[in-house]
Each structure stands twice: as structure tokens, then as C-alpha cells.
Amino acid sequence: MKLRPVCGVVLRQYYLLRGSPIRVVPMFAWVGVDIVLWGFITRYLNTVGPAGVNFVPRLLGAVLLWDFLTRIMQGVTVAFLEDVWSRNFLNLFATPLLVSEYVVGLVVTSVVTSLFGLAVMLVLATAFFGLSFLALGALVVPFVLVLFLFGIALGILGSAMVLRWGPASEWLIWPLPALIAPFAGVFYPVATLPHWMQAVAAILPPSRVFEALRTVVGGGTPAVSELAWAAALAFVYVLLGTLTFTSVFRYVVRSGLLARYSAESVG
């Protein structure tokens, strides 16, 4: 894998954003709406809830981290879909571009765009609702890292789905975070779920992250083993997502689907 093709993929996304500033708006608009909406909800809950219970880190912190994961996933998929929508995907692979170089380029693009959205969320949550992740100290790093890796895995998997079934199937990838959220225990402990849902939650890295976050907010210390398991699972999902994308790419090349790639075809 070479650095220059990776930079080329990233540079293409930069030119798209520079040439159409309206593309920048979704990076902060929807996350801003989420932070403001949930910020006022947590402020209201603080006035009616038990004394001494602060809902800001419990709910608003969870919303911020989940939105970060969603932004990471969408950063990968949107960058991929830009090539699909512009019918440029086939042109890219007419060059000596490796699949690994293309995927890494998508990931780098996602990192840059997601950090922009994260900065907006942190400013709004801190300035208007008093949420500070600095109070968590170094524990923020494994939380964010695990969610980042899992978001990348979801983004690669979503891109593989569209690559296999065609552009018309892109609607399948947008609900992925919403489908996973009930199992991840974003707003409630995993123990409240039925046993079969707890079994699913056990193999999802975000569920361990949010359980650890609630432990920290409650004044406890999260188990290092839990965070280690979450990180290991996240790495496994990234690996599986990458292998799936590579396998699907090889299939669409061998079957000729890549050459017939169009918005109307779902093969």
C-alpha cells in the first residue's frame, strides 16, 4: 500500500467539499440539533429528577458519543457514495488503485470530517449545558477509540452492502446506527434488556463503552478488562468489515457488476 493513492482519495473528497460548501453543513447541522435538543431535555430532567442526580453526563454525554460513532460511520459511507453518485467508482479502479488504499482513504476522510463534527458538539455541550469530558480524564481516550473503530467497521460494512447490491440499496445503511442503539444500551443499562438482547449486546463494543461510562459517572472505576474486550471486539469488526469489502469487490469485478454499476441496477 502506497501513501500517494491514499492522499489522492482524500484530496478528491477535499475538492468536493471545497467546490460545494453545502456539503459541509451536514457535518455540524444535525449533531448540533441533537446536542441542543438533548441538552434541554437533560436540563429539564435535572429540575424534576432526584436531588444530586445530574442527567447531563448520563444522557447528553451518551448522545454526544453515539453521534460521534454515527458521524464516523457516515464519514466513510458518504465518501464512498460520492463516488457512486458521480459514477466515478469504475474510473477510480481503472487506475492502479488498491482496495486497501481506497478504504484507508475513506477512513482518513471520515476522521477529518468527524473531528469537525465532534468539535462542534463539544463546544455546544460545554458552553451551553456544562458538559465537560475533561472531568473523565484519560478514560475518554479508550471510550472514543473503541467507538471510532466500531464506526469505521460499520462504515466499511455499509459501503460493502451498497457495492454488492447497487446504489438503490443505500437506504439500508442509514438505519444501521438506529438498529444497533437499542442493543448498545446508549441510554440505559444493558441489564434492563431481555436476555436475548443482552446476548447480542455482549458482542457489541459500544455496549461495554456505555456501561463503563455509566460506572464512571456514578463515581466508580470501570473494569479494565471490559474496555480491553471492547477494543479487541472493535478491531475484529474492522478486520471483518475490511475482509467483507475486499471479498465483495472481487466478486463484483469477476461477475461484471462493477462495469454495469449504475443507479438503476441492483444485482
Structural class: mainly alpha
Report, as a whole number of angstroms, the end-to-end distance. 30 Å
**Uncertain runs:** 262-267
- Summed up, the domain count is 1
Largest β-sheet summary? none
Q: Which percent range fits the helix content?
A: over 70%
By DSSP, the count of extended strands is 0
Mean pLDDT value = 85
**Content of β-strand:** under 5%
**H-E string:** HHHHHHHHHH
List keywords for this structure.
mainly alpha; disordered C terminus; 73% helix; 0% strand
Structure described in brief:
The chain has one domain.
Written account of the structure:
The protein has 267 residues and is mainly alpha-helical. The protein has one domain. The protein contains 10 helices and no strands. The longest helix is centred in the C-terminal third of the chain and has 32 residues. It is globular and about 65 Å long. The relative contact order is 0.13. The C terminus is likely disordered.
